[in-house]
Design brief:
Rossmann fold, Alpha-Beta Plaits, 2 domains, 6-stranded mixed sheet, 13 strands, elongated
Length: 316
C-alpha cells in the first residue's frame, strides 16, 4: 500500500492552521503541524513531508528563514521538498522575497479552497517529475561506474578510486597494493565455445574475485578479460597471499557447457606502495601491469609482484 501524501503546515495562528489542516485532511492528505518556523524545520528534517506550507511571520524563526533552512537540508540529502507560502501578507515585495527564499508558490489569505487544492496538486506533480529525474540520474551515474557484464566497478571508477586511495596512503603513511589479473588464452574459450560461454566464464570469475576479497578492497574489470584489484592497507606479504588466493579461486572457477567443463588459468601481476619509484597512483598501476606482462612472459599461470626488481612466484 502506498503511503499517504504528507503535507507540513507551519502557522502560529491556531485557527488558520486548523482551517488549512482540515481542508487538506478532507482531501486525503496526511497533515503534520508546526507552530513556528523552527519546529517546521525540525519536523521537515525528521519526517520528510512531500510538501511544506509556511506562514511568513512566525515566532522563533520566520517563514523566509525556515524555507531557506528546509531547502538547504533537503538539497544536502538529495531530496526535493516543494514549499508554498500561505500568508495574509500579499504585497509584491513579500511574494518576491518568498520566491527568492526558495519557495515554489505563494498564496494569500483568505484563500479559495479549490485554488489551494489545485496549487498543491501542481506542486506535487512537479515533485514527482523532479524525483523521477533524480532517480534516473542516480541510476545512470551508478551504471556509468559499473561494468554491465560482471557488475564490477569499471575502468573509470578504478582511475578515480585509485587516486583517492593513493592520496590517503600517502597522507597517513599506510601501505597500498594493486593486483592486475588477466585470464590466460581466454580467446581460445570464445573460439571453441562461443562468446556467450566466454561471457559466462568472465562473470563467474568476477564473482570468485569478489568473494575472495575483503569488503574494503576495490574489485574492477579494467576491460576485456583483465581485472584490477586495489588492496588498501596491504603490504607486499599480504598482497602476495591475496594474489595466490585469487589465482587459485579463478583456476577453480567452472562453467558447464553441455558435457564440457569450461575453465581457465590466470596470470597475476602486482605492485606495492611504499616502494622505490612508485611516486603516484599511475606508477603503482603501471608497475602492476609490468609485473603482469612478466608473469605472462614466464609461461602464464604465474604470479609476479614488483618490488624494486621483478619478483616471480610460482603457485603450487
Amino acid at each position: 500500500m502506498a503511503r499517504p501524501i504528507s503535507v507540513l503546515i507551519a502557522d502560529d495562528q491556531v485557527a488558520a492552521r486548523e482551517n488549512t489542516a482540515r481542508a487538506l485532511r478532507d482531501t486525503g492528505y496526511r497533515v503534520i503541524m508546526a507552530v513556528d518556523g523552527q519546529e517546521a524545520v525540525d519536523k521537515a528534517t525528521a519526517e520528510k513531508p512531500d510538501l511544506v506550507i509556511l506562514d511568513v511571520v512566525m515566532p522563533r524563526l520566520g517563514g523566509l528563514d525556515a524555507c531557506r533552512a528546509i531547502k538547504k537540508n533537503a538539497d544536502r540529502e538529495g531530496e526535493f521538498i516543494p514549499v508554498m507560502f500561505l500568508s495574509s501578507r500579499g504585497d509584491p515585495s513579500v511574494r518576491i522575497e518568498g520566491l527568492r527564499a526558495g519557495a515554489q508558490d505563494f498564496l494569500t489569505k483568505p484563500f479559495d479552497l479549490e485554488e489551494l487544492r489545485a496549487r498543491i496538486e501542481a506542486l506535487l506533480r512537479i515533485k514527482r517529475i523532479v524525483d523521477e529525474a533524480r532517480r534516473v540520474r542516480t541510476e545512470f551515474d551508478e551504471s556509468a561506474l559499473h561494468d554491465r557484464l560482471t557488475g564490477l566497478y569499471n575502468q573509470r571508477y578504478l582511475t578515480q578510486r585509485l587516486d583517492e586511495e593513493f592520496q590517503r596512503a600517502q597522507r597517513y603513511n599506510e601501505p597500498l597494493s594493486v593486483l592486475a589479473l588477466d585470464l590466460d588464452e581466454f580467446e581460445k574459450v570464445n573460439g571453441r565455445f562461443g562468446r556467450g560461454v566466454g561471457d559466462r566464464l568472465l562473470a563467474e570469475c568476477a564473482r570468485s574475485l569478489s568473494r575472495a576479497c575483503r569488503q574494503v578492497d576495490v574489485v574492477t574489470r579494467a576491460g576485456g578479460d583483465e581485472f584490477v584489484i586495489v588492496l588498501p592497507s596491504t603490504y607486499f606479504g599480504g598482497s602476495l597471499m591475496m594474489a595466490e588466493r585469487l589465482w587459485r579461486d579463478v583456476k577453480n572457477t567452472v562453467v558447464e557447457e553441455g558435457a564440457s567443463r569450461v575453465t581457465c588459468e590466470v596470470s597475476v601481476g602486482g605492485a606495492c606502495f611504499p616502494t622505490r619509484d612508485v611516486m603516484g597512483a599511475k606508477d603503482l598501476l603501471r608497475f602492476a601491469h609490468a609485473a603482469l606482462a612478466r608473469a605472462k612472459a614466464e609461461g602464464r599461470g604465474k604470479i609476479c609482484l614488483f618490488q624494486h626488481q621483478g619478483y616471480l612466484f610460482q603457485p603450487q
